[in-house]
TrEMBL record:
Tree of life domain: Bacteria
Single GO term (MF): DNA binding
Keywords: DNA-binding
InterPro entries linked to this entry: Tscrpt_reg_MarR-type_CS (IPR023187), WH-like_DNA-bd_sf (IPR036388), WH_DNA-bd_sf (IPR036390)
Protein name (database record): Winged helix DNA-binding protein
Length: 134
């Protein structure tokens, strides 16, 4: 499935670029979506084998640090991400996707690809989210 993995990365990168364009045009405070932004960053970072620290992840969300930290806590509580103290630098907290988080992102990216390619019917767009929230 290397082709599917490559396609997911391309979609994810385009979504991040689109989010940045939207934020630049409207101002990030008017179109904040920190959970989506952070999940996309984690997905890309893990495929690029980059370590993501809590501080940089919160910066990536374009919301106040306290808001971003609350969102990370929410994602952790529903099993999408995990926090680990970095073993080399005890001050750093590393954030990674859980298997559920990765599965959710891949499911959403596949669904968005279907929509973009006109392959999707009028299915409910939240069905993938409901699966992981329950």
């Amino acid at each position: 499935m290397p082709h599917r993995s490559f396609a997911r990365m391309e979609i994810c990168r385009k979504l991040v670029t689109m989010r940045k364009a939207l934020g630049d045009a409207l101002g990030y405070r008017h179109c904040a979506n920190p959970i989506w932004d952070m999940l996309m960053e984690l997905y890309i970072a893990e495929r690029e084998r980059r370590v993501v620290y809590l501080w940089s992840l919160c910066s990536f969300a374009n919301v106040p640090f306290s808001t971003a930290c609350r969102k990370v806590t929410e994602m952790e509580e529903i099993g999408l991400v995990r926090r680990n103290t970095a073993y080399r630098d005890r001050r750093g907290v590393v954030v990674t996707l859980t298997d559920n988080g990765e599965g959710l992102i891949e499911s959403l990216l596949d669904r968005l690809a279907e929509i973009y390619n006109g392959e999707s019917t009028a299915r409910a767009g939240v069905s993938a989210l409901v699966r992981f929230a329950n």
